[in-house]
Amino acid sequence: MKQSELNNKASSYVDSYEVIKSLSSTFEPKGIFHSELLMAYTLIKELGVEKVIESGRARGQSTEIIARICQQDGLEFHSIEYDDKSPDVAVAEKRLAPYKDVCTLHYGDGFELMPKLLDGKDTLIIIDGPKGVWAQKLGLLMLKKENVKAVLFHDTHRDAYDSRPRLERYFGRHLLVSDDYEYVDAFSYLDDVCWQETNKFFDGYAPYKRYNTIMRSYAGTLSCVINNNIDETMLDNYINDINRSILVKESLLFRLANKINLISMIKNLHWKLT
To answer: Widest CA span of the chain, in angstroms?
Structure first.
């Protein structure tokens, strides 16, 4: 599937998505935006998956939307949250109580739980936690599984220096993104409430802007890799690349640099250069 095809397909599902949106709870800050979830909805429909697995639940904003989609289409849905001590747990569990018939809540490490949830059913995976290189590693490992039809990574906007450049380098034109300019022009109206609620908690958030800093992407962004004859050697090279970055990020020197805000300086330099 090409980006232009995704954009056209989303147009045929937007009315159905708006019904789901209207029935759902009010948008929660840090949730996946509605235009992004429309992209997920379109891929669920077009790929004909039988199961959805979400990693990173927080307060259950996007989880509720996905649960409604899965309930509507008779799909199996599993949601994984790492932190079972978070204050968000009670909020999410209350919100998702009506969907116990379709949505199973799990607590623990996605690297351990997700492979156990895979079986012979065609599956779509959405990763909203962990973030960055750890999200990419988890997604890439899942793309090695035959029945994983697609992996979607959240928070992969154009300025996500440790995510988006690699995704583009390895998957190129096969990468599908919710910050495609034509896609944003067509569906950003779905996000009016998202921006309103977000700005109650985060100043300076707006389309193409974060903390009053100009961004190259409209919002957080979902990026999708469809598992269609992916070259195994390329995947292994990508995973090796990620493993090297993880070693650096987990090093004592990197942690010390992060504490003195050196990493933010590096990010800012990267944005200026790119």
So the answer is: 51
Q: What is the pLDDT of residues 70-80, one digit of tens each?
A: 999 999 999 99
The residue to which tokens 């936690």 are assigned: 129
Per-residue model confidence as pLDDT tens digits over 59-68: 999 999 999 9
CATH code assigned to 3-231: 3.40.50.150
> How many other CB atoms sit within 10 Å of the CB of residue 149?
23
CA dist., res. 92 & res. 164, Å (int): 29
> d(Cα 74, Cα 244) in Å, to the nearest integer?
41
CB-CB contact of 64 with 96 (8 Å): yes
pTM above 0.85, yes or no: yes
Cα(57)–Cα(33) distance, integer angstroms:
14
- In three-state secondary structure terms, 25 is coil
